Amino acid sequence: MDRLLAMQVFEKVANESGFAAAARTLDMSPPVVTRLVAELEDHLGTRLFQRTTRKVSLTEAGQAYLARVRQILQDVDEADALAIAHTNQLAGRLRMHTSPVLASYVVAPLLSEFRQRHPGIVVELEVEAYRDPPIEDFDITLLGADADFDANIVARKIVESDVILVASPAYVQRSGAPQTPEDLAKHECLRLKRSDGSLRAWRMWCGQKSDQVVELNIDAVLVANHTDTLLRAALDGAGITSIAMNIAAPYLNRGDLVRVLSPWMTGRLAMYAAVPSRKFIPQRSRVFLDYLVEHTRELHDKALKACEVC
After folding, report:
1. Are 140 and 267 part of one and the same domain?
2. Which pLDDT value is given to residue 306?
């Protein structure tokens, strides 16, 4: 039995929650995947999976084994990368985790140029909206949080961004632009709802004057728990929405969106990159983080300049 291959197959079955799905991902036949896991279980003398006709789940032993296997496979990747590093080329697998919004609007636009710079690095991206993401399982976990976020994790601040009000030029031409926060009551607003389905008041302040706060309960023509939907609707001229500037940056730079009611804002957010440990950060993680900071802050600065002429 090739134990390393069996470990890789075991990890993939656990990740995919099924033998057939793992086989497709690995480009193996399902019988081969089943056999390798069975041989690994025989070698260990314990069952790693509970199998039913409807699902495959890890046993308690399987869960404990998976944590160690992931570290072993990571160490193997690191050993390979160290050997390849003698050719002065970064290589290996970069495992990342982030939310759907950051995956779509921050990570995905970076990947083409990053891969051209570092073709030896394979990016594996897990996209889930966890309240408490499993930071220990990934090289980098991107988090969106309030600007004063403080948690017991190792994290680097990537960018801090104002949350602003935006609309399409077509909407502004059709309906005009609000001149005061109170004018929003006369406009078509697109609102993001909380996970419990409620809407919180738009808490607004003017530029850096955070002590001058206005709270408004604005009726909305569209309420959604999905940022993509609100952004798409705003781009199509449906109304005014509130969004972080770093997410809206490319649309502001192209003129697809304009900022309204400047310099009023509805919040301040920050994006952080969390890592499992400060002691050892793989070089591939470092180069990605440096590239992420460079690209994201450049785009954010361009958006600020675009807003100056909004």
Report:
1. yes
2. 64
Q: Are strands 240-244 and 154-167 parallel, antiparallel or unpaired?
A: antiparallel
pLDDT digits (tens, 9 = 90+) for 177-217: 999 999 999 999 999 887 666 778 888 888 766 667 888 88
Q: Are residues 253 and 145 part of one domain?
A: yes
Last residue of a domain, one of 43, 72, 101: 72
Q: How much is the CA Rg of the chain, to the nearest whole Å?
A: 24
Kindly give the residue spans of alpha helices, DSSP state H, lying in the chain.
3-16, 19-26, 30-44, 60-84, 100-102, 108-117, 169-175, 227-235, 245-254, 283-308
Sign of CA dihedral 284, 289, 292, 295: negative
Residues ≥6 apart with Cβ < 8 Å to 92: 77, 78, 80, 81, 84, 120, 121, 122, 282, 284
Indicate if 164 and 32 belong to the same structural domain. Answer: no
Q: For residue 288, is pLDDT > 90? A: yes
Put simply, whether the predicted model's pTM sits higher than 0.85 gets the answer no
Could you read off the pLDDT of 101-124 as tens digits, one per residue? Answer: 889 888 998 999 999 999 989 999
Residues 36 and 142 in one domain: no
**Helix 283-308, helix 245-254: angle, nearest 10:** 60
Arithmetic mean of pLDDT, 84-113: 81
- Can you spell out the DSSP letters for 199-261? ---EEEEETTEEEEEEEE----SEEES-HHHHHHHHHTTS-EEEEEHHHHHHHHHHTSSEEES
**pLDDT of the residue at 125:** 93
3-state secondary structure of 125: strand
Q: Which of 53, 72, 91 is where one domain is finished? A: 72
- Looking up residue 178, the CATH number of its domain turns out to be 3.40.190.290
Task: Say if 173 falls within a structural domain.
Answer: yes
Residue in 257, 114, 233, 255 with CA at minimum distance from that of residue 244: 257
Contact 97, 126 (CB under 8 A): yes
Are 140 and 281 contained in the same domain? Answer: yes
Instruction: Print the domain residue range for 24.
Output: 3-72
